[in-house]
């Protein structure tokens, strides 16, 4: 049976995840949190910093994050949950940290 596009995309991102350094995983964690809580003020400032012009082409990691962002936006809730389950199988501490940070962000009430 052929895999769906989203299944192939999830496999691709989990493959990349395995090769990412701890620092890259931290950047990815921030990206995931930004997707969970899009109105996070820090996200706005990070996005503004990212607008800087550079003479260098983007890194492979930056390209991977860009593709992930495009794909993640198209995934339904079940596919997103499947993705997190697969990440948990690869790095349970990463997912635990993600869930703790997500809980903090979603439990904060605006003043």
UniProtKB/TrEMBL annotation:
InterPro entries: DUF4508. It comes from the Eukaryota. This is Chromosome 14 open reading frame 119. It comes from Elysia marginata. The lineage of its organism: Eukaryota, Metazoa, Spiralia, Lophotrochozoa, Mollusca.
